[in-house]
Every structure is written in structure tokens, then in C-alpha cells.
Amino acid sequence: MAERGGRSRERTGGRARKTYARRPARVHREGRRARLRRGWSAKRASGAARVLGLSNTRRAAVVAIVVCALAFTIAVPLRTYLTQRSEVSEQQQQRERLRDEVAQLEARKAELADPAQVQAEARRRLRYVMPGETPYMVQLPEDKQQAPNQGPAEQAPPPSGPWYERLWDQATG
Known about the structure:
The chain is mainly alpha-helical. It is 60% helix and 7% strand. The protein contains 5 helices and 2 strands. Strand 1 (7-12) and strand 2 form a beta hairpin. The relative contact order is 0.03.
């Protein structure tokens, strides 16, 4: 009897004779390359599943775990990079502010190198006068301070005693 899709050998007269079984009509219509391609890809996929012993669901779970591990591996250095990048930009802004401040202070130093400017500053800020000059002090009405005896009519005396006693008195009425 012939085996399906394979070769069979019948013994006839001491010699082996090769016979081929009939193939279904569908197999004849397909090309030989398509059969080989289909066979190899099926063998490859089934071979990988057999070797690893994994089903499609398990393979998807393994891939998901690998992707998560890669994401966690990249997350920490990425966060560090972004933090350092923002710190660098802040430091550059601070450096620019300090350069502007240094330029202003150098300009002020150049102004104060003139003795006449120093004298004008001393008169204005420290109210210095030269010998022989008569100083006048002009006090405008809004500059007057309120006299201590002219305070509000009903000013409560400052509370006495520790704070916890005052709190208890307020709470109990």
C-alpha cells in the first residue's frame, strides 16, 4: 500500500520499486514554491513555539515585560538629563543677571572716582555740610509723625499673662 504523500517501496522480484501516491487536486494547483514557503514558515513558527514552550499569549506577555524593562531602564537617565538641562538653563540666566549687575557696579565705581560726585553723595545721603555753611531742614506736613498723646481714644492695654491663659480666657468667655 502506498503511504499518503510519501514514497512506498514494494518488493517485486528482489528489487525495490518506487511508487508515488496520488495527491489531492488542491495540491497540484498550488505551486511548488508556495508549498515550500508555507511549509517552512509553519515549521519555523511551530519550531520556535516548541523550543521555547510558549503560546502566543505567553510570548506577548514576555514581549510586554521586555518593553517595560526597557522603558524603566531609559526613564531614569532621561529624567536626569532633563533635570540637568533645566538646571543649566537656570545657571545661564543667573550668570547673565550677575554680568549685568557687575557692569552696573563698575559704572557706579567709575562715577564715584570723581571727588565732586563723592561730595554730592555725602551731602545728599549723609546730610554733611561744609564748614561755614548753614544747613536748613525743611519738614513737610506729611512728614510729621503723630504725637504719642494724640493716639486713638480707645486703645486697649497690652494683654498680660502667658498666651495659654489668654487663649483659655477667650475660649471660656
